[in-house]
Amino acid sequence: DAGVTQSPTHLIKTRGQQVTLRCSPKSGHDTVSWYQQALGQGPQFIFQYYEEEERQRGNFPDRFSGHQFPNYSSELNVNALLLGDSALYLCASSFGPGSSPLHFGNGTRLTVT
Amino acid sequence: RKEVEQDPGPFNVPEGATVAFNCTYSNSASQSFFWYRQDCRKEPKLLMSVYSSGNEDGRFTAQLNRASQYISLLIRDSKLSDSATYLCVVTPYNNNDMRFGAGTRLTVKP
């Protein structure tokens, strides 16, 4: 039973570039949530996708966007990267948008130089 | 005030010690509560849910005080493998996102 998988595991980008991170939910899950975790902080909610729509959004600028595909996998896109976007990006899945707890993937560590 | 606040830590304890972590939350309408464990450079993993009646899982005991908006985690007979960061997590009522505290780092030493 595959858990939540994310790719890539590490990524280095320069300021102003764009990045796309990918996530496949745990088998049987249909909802994907994205979190950003800066060093020494807890994960911060970016947004959640269910039925291919953004259902809820945290306090992140429009540079952060996403998509969910019919197979429930999801992408997180960040445009015009800033140094402050360097963080661990975590994808979590669940069955249904209101269910908890969440199951996390291993994360993508993004470094912006 | 942060939505979820935890003991700043770090906690450094010897093997076999009992250690307690505290967490407070600001949204009185919060409905679900959890403790997650996060090892260095790894993803958070669910340790246990927290119920109003309190609950225990082996050496771990979690308690919730809704009136005081306070959650606790007690670890008895600490093991070296308990060394990790412990994240307090709250889900607001009628909301789909989980709110994390900044975490408390625990190091158990031989």
Structural features, described:
With 113 residues, chain A is mostly beta strands. Chain A contains no helices and 11 strands. In chain A, the strands form 2 sheets. In chain A, strands 2, 4, 5, 6, 9, 10 and 11 form a 7-stranded mixed beta sheet that branches. Chain A is globular and about 35 Å long. Chain B is mainly β and 110 residues long. Chain B is 0% helix and 52% strand. In chain B, the strands form 2 sheets. In chain B, strands 2, 4, 5, 9, 10 and 11 form a 6-stranded mixed beta sheet that branches. Chain B has a 5-stranded antiparallel beta sheet with strand order 1-3-8-7-6, with no helix packed on it. In chain B, a hairpin with a 4-residue loop joins strand 7 and strand 8 (70-75). Chain B is globular, with a radius of gyration of 13 Å. Chain A binds chain B through residues 33, 35, 40-45, 48, 55-56, 58, 88, 90, 97-98, 100-107, 109, and chain B through 4, 32, 34, 36, 41-46, 49, 87, 89, 91, 95-103.
SSE diagram, text form:
The complex is a heterodimer of chains A (113) and B (110).
Chain A: E1 5-7, E2 10-13, E3 19-24, E4 31-37, E5 44-50, E6 53-57, E7 64-68, E8 74-78, E9 87-94, E10 103-104, E11 108-112
Parallel strand pairs in A: 2-11
Antiparallel strand pairs in A: 1-3, 3-8, 4-5, 4-9, 5-6, 7-8, 9-10, 9-11
Chain B: E1 4-6, E2 11-14, E3 19-25, E4 32-38, E5 45-49, E6 55-57, E7 60-65, E8 70-75, E9 84-91, E10 99-100, E11 104-109
Parallel strand pairs in B: 2-11
Antiparallel strand pairs in B: 1-3, 3-8, 4-5, 4-9, 6-7, 7-8, 9-10, 9-11
Tell me briefly what this model is.
With 113 residues, chain A is an all-beta fold. Chain A has strands at 5-7, 10-13, 19-24, 31-37, 44-50, 53-57, 64-68, 74-78, 87-94, 103-104, 108-112. In chain B, strands 2, 4, 5, 9, 10 and 11 form a six-stranded mixed sheet that branches. In chain B, strands 1-3-8-7-6 form a five-stranded antiparallel sheet, with no helix packed on it.
